[in-house]
Amino acid sequence: MRTPRWVGALALAGLLAGCGGGDDRGSAVGTGGGSAAVGGGTGTGTGATGSTGGCTLRARQDWAFSILNEWYRYPELLASNVDPASYTTLDGYVDALTAPARAQNRDRYFTYVTSAAADAAYFASGKTAGLGVRLALTASNRLFVREAFEDTPALTAGIDRGTEILAVGTSTTNLRDISDMIAKNDYDALNAAFDDTTPGSTRVVRVSDAAGTRVVTLTTANYSLAPVSSRYGAKVLDSGGRKVGYINLRTFIASADDQLRSAFATFRARGVTDLVIDLRYNGGGLLSTAETFTDLLGGARSTSDVQAYTSYRASKSSRDRIRYFQQEAQAIAPTRVAFIGTGATASASEYVINALIPYLHGDVALIGSNTYGKPVGQLPFDNPSCSDDRLLAVSLALQNAARQGDYFYGLATKVEASCQADDDVSHALGDPAETSLRTALDYIAGRSCTPIGTSASVGRSTQLFAPANRPLTVAHPNAAQRDQPGLF
Questions:
Q1: Are 186 and 129 in contact (CB under 8 A)?
Q2: Is residue 206 within 8 Å of 171, Cβ to Cβ?
Q3: Which of 93, 169, 205, 445 is a plausible cystine mate for 87, CB 3.0–4.6 Å?
Q4: Tens of pLDDT along 66-109?
């Protein structure tokens, strides 16, 4: 399968969010200067002059190079011998420039070019298009729906978590078995069979679930992905007489902030101090939202407590900053927090977990499997000559209050407590019987478990910790697919 490119981005919060660091795509930096808010203030960036010579491939390549040459967090790892003429796409050229950083696990396709319009739409309100499902292959190469989103073609047709996809086509006459594609290692065809985000496109699938086996015709459509599900996103669970707050955050986008505040207001009113935070498929997003989330977990913190340190390359060190905890009216002071994570948990999700470690120590745990490993963030740059070009460039590194920020191989070896658990698609998300949630509740109750990666050495590949289920990926993911692994 292709190298995953879905991992969520963290860029710097700017004019739209108003304060804090992180990943605010609304604060794109114009190449001719422009302004972006850094650390709560508005700073005028010099920007890279880039190319204003039109929208030809070479002009776009020159523009991308000028941005990276000025802003890339690891200038010593930027390839210097790349000939633009050797590449027929801008993506290929940017990949070549950042290849040395990828070789050191510092930039696993975190630097990329995307559509400015689609990027802004998704990170403002979750707007995207498709069938509205998250798909993954099991260890035995069976294709299951890991999640279905509200008000989408899939869920409307009765396709939900735990549904197995047996065959796919564009009509009932050309259905192709999933097992056949996998037997022939035709993963490109498998990905392409679902990767159509043009509203009105038809997909026919043969599925199997508790209702039996049937053929369903689906038509792709526009929809807005809710960060917190109306079905299972936030609830108070009764676990052996103990009240435990459960929240499943799908993505860090602007519309998540108030949903998180509402959930925490309920937790606070119910006297909840033990939490399970489900980030198992959350590939990241806006760090401004991650900061708000962490503030809501900081009821015991003061405004002099460090939440995170942000640092840039030496030539941009004037932008380095410290982000302190801020007061949120709905904040709680947690006793224990169990984060459910997988190899799809990345970026802003990891920021929240990492920020709590120095304060809660063994009372914050990672449940499931190791996270992806992305302690860096991007700044967004828009091309003045090609209005829909947006370059997300790795420009900053993040550390927690203990200056821990080297989790390029995930957080399993950084947390002080962890428990291995499977991602159990036979149960609904938010169901206490689901394996990962059940394990999280066991941790909250003080019961023993098997730590993640017990036999793996520090610094090894996340594959040693990877869950059996692996999301389908596409060659050129859109904004939503980058932060939502396996989204179609």
A1: no
A2: no
A3: 93
A4: 999 999 999 999 999 999 999 999 999 999 999 999 999 999 99
